[in-house]
Amino acid sequence: MRRLVAAVAASLAVAAAPAHAQQTIKLTVSAGHPPAFLWVKLLDEVFIPEVDRRLAAAGKYRVEWTRAYGGTLAKLGAESVAIKDGVSDLGFVSTIFEAARFPLQNISYYAPFGSSEILVVTRITGDLQRQVPAMAEAWTKANLVYLGGAALDAYHVWSSFPIRSVDDIRGKKLSAPGPSANWIKGTGAVAVAGTLTTYYEDIKSGVSDGALTFATGAAAAKLVEVAPYVTLVNFGSMYAGGLAVNKKRFDALPPEVQRAFREAAAEYTIRFANEQTIRAAEALKQMQAVRAKVYALPPAERKRWADALPPIGKVWGAEMQAKGLPATEVLQGYMRLQREAGVDIVRDWAN
How far is CA 91 from CA 42, 105, 142, 259, 279, in A? Predict the structure, then answer.
């Protein structure tokens, strides 16, 4: 009788016990920018929930997330280092601010007047990273695994004076930092260094007469208050960076967790492109409703502008080649993939 009771008790205990004990994985996700920026905001609203949803469906693992945004752990311009060193486990790496570590990822800035579609530019850059080993190696050398990317909406010009042709910027000063300064070389305009945080005061004080930037950035900086003339030049969408995870940490994760990361990152990439596109259109509408005078530069003038520039793609390519990087291959691939995507090529920067 005692044996029977013991056997029944044992069977009840087994039935009451969970089939699999859920394992908790602790991870820290970081970004140099605050959540006000969409690429950070969607870490919380898309990537993390998508990972959680997939893992919950499987039931074996769950992630306990620690969020460290706004430069609290990973400083802007050193985001990859924080993840590489294990200060955080994963996060958004702004390759635009880490050109020394990711020089080839900045290809879009040396091939302007390309596609204005965010998802097209993001996918082309992702394709290049798979096709050109040196681009992928930039991530692995930094002890990172690339998961998905993001590009900024198309760049235009906000100015204190009207622009109806490329001739109108001759003798003017335009805030155009970093590689975007190349976009006004040969036009007679002068590039002025600055950032979104300085454009407003620079234009207001006369340090510059306008700025080259993107609609969502211009809206955040309230540029229309000092630069009411918005000229839709369409320098194209520009690749900004990507979501990456510490390679050693990623390699140690169970396969189904790795798969959840990759699938969630793919969803993040698409959602970012779609939402950023909507935000850019809404930003322009709101500016126009307030005081902006929006003018779309005619295709012929856009081509004149592009043709007035020096061969910035080939110059960049030669400089990178001298450093042992296959920039010419990347440039040629970028132009080829744009054509394959149906982009109207205004100027072939590879030739």
Answer: 11, 17, 13, 17, 23
What are 1's two structure tokens?
């009788």
Helix (H, G, I), strand (E, B) or coil at 146: strand
Low-confidence ranges of the chain (pLDDT < 70): 1-20
The rounded distance, in Å, linking the Cα atoms of 38 and 45 is 10
The answer to whether residues 160 and 210 touch, using CB atoms and an 8 Å cutoff, is yes
Cβ neighbours around 15 below 10 Å, total? 7
Is the four-CA dihedral 34, 40, 43, 44 of positive or negative sign? Answer: positive
Report pLDDT for 36.
87
List, in order of start, the domains of the chain with CATH numbers.
22-152+238-280 (3.40.190.170), 155-236+293-313 (3.40.190.10)
**203 φ/ψ angles, rounded to the nearest 5 degrees:** -70, -40
AA identity, residue 345: I
Helix (H, G, I), strand (E, B) or coil at 218: helix
Residue 109: which of 178, 212, 171 has the closest Cα? 178
Q: Report which DSSP code applies to 20.
A: S
Closest CA to 143 of 250, 266, 242, 48: 250
pTM, full prediction: 0.90
CB 174 within 8 A of CB 180: no
d(CA 276, CA 84): 28
Within 8 A by CB and 6+ apart from 220, the residues are: 36, 196
DSSP reduced 3-state for 172: coil
